[in-house]
Amino acid sequence: MEINELKAQVRYLKTEVTNLKTADLTIEAKLALLEAQKDDPVIPQSFPVEISGIPDTEIPTPQFLRTISKITFQKWYSIVTLVVEDTSVNAIALIDSGADVNYIKGGVIPTKYCERKNESLSSANGESLSISYKLDKGYIKNDGYCFKNTFLIVDNITNDIILGTLFLTQIYLFYVNETGVHTRIMGKPISFNFLSVAKQELIHCKLNRI
Questions:
Q1: What are 80's strand-pairing partners?
Q2: pLDDT per residue over 174-202, tens digit each?
Q3: How much is the pLDDT for 186?
Q4: Among 58, 117, 129, 195, which has the minimal tally of Cβ within 10 Å of its Cβ?
Q5: How far apart are CA 133 and CA 193, in angstroms?
Q6: β-bridge mates for residue 121, sequence order
Q7: Tens-place pLDDT, residues 109-146
Q8: How far apart (Å, rounded) are the C-alpha atoms in residues 64 and 62?
Q9: HEC states along the chain?
Q10: How far is CA 14 from CA 150, 187, 210, in A?
Q11: End-to-end CA distance of the chain
């Protein structure tokens, strides 16, 4: 076997290991969500939502991008509500300051809300991302506010939703502590809470080893 073939196999195996570790984190996050819902009322996965009259937030100046480029990329898990027209879906999102755009896993929302888009991008580990659709108007709803975002629909990702810098610009200035990501919109505090403090610390440790 030639050296180039061996190198290609090594790269492939490294990618597979990374994917398995990421999948393991996602499973743990979903288990944490199920545990957290044991004593809480059941929340339907999809239900009609009225979004008229809810203000969109403006994306701030490029100061955010200059600031975030100076800090270490971070990843956090949080339960979010994604609103698309008259439908809402509750899902676990990976808030990733290292992702340039926002992603939704194929199958999370109906494709009737999206426009077809054939494009190929690469993930941080070099894996090719299969992009089939684009959602121009998706809203992340929290405490009466809807943050309007665009999303790429990707089939081969492990997380249901990935919120990147396009989303983080909308909640800038924000701060992070052990409970979640927090910001203020028109003086009102808004928080994207982590699944749990213990689970978040565990996820952080495992992500640092990937």
A1: 91
A2: 999 888 999 998 889 999 998 865 565 66
A3: 87
A4: 58
A5: 29
A6: 129
A7: 999 999 998 776 766 566 778 788 999 999 999 988 99
A8: 5
A9: CCHHHHHHHHHHHHHHHHHHHHHHHHHHHHHHHHHHCCCCCCCCCEECCCCCCCCCCCCCCCHHHHHHCCCCCCEEEEEEEEEECCEEEEEEEEEECCCCCCEEECCCCCHHHCEEEEEEEECCCCCEEEEEEEEEEEEEEECCEEEEEEEEEECCCCCCEEECHHHHHHHCCEEECCCEEEEEECCEEEEEEECCHHHHHHHHHHHHHC
A10: 31, 46, 10
A11: 28
Q: Which two tokens stand for residue 6?
A: 């061996």
Q: Burial of 161 by CB count in 10 Å (0-12 exposed, 13-18 middle, 19+ buried)?
A: buried
Question: Quick one: tokens of 12?
Answer: 């492939």
Residue in the structure block whose two tokens are 């506010």: 145
Identity of residue 11: R
Task: Please answer whether residues 137 and 148 qualify as being in contact, where contact means their C-beta atoms are separated by less than 8 angstroms.
Answer: yes
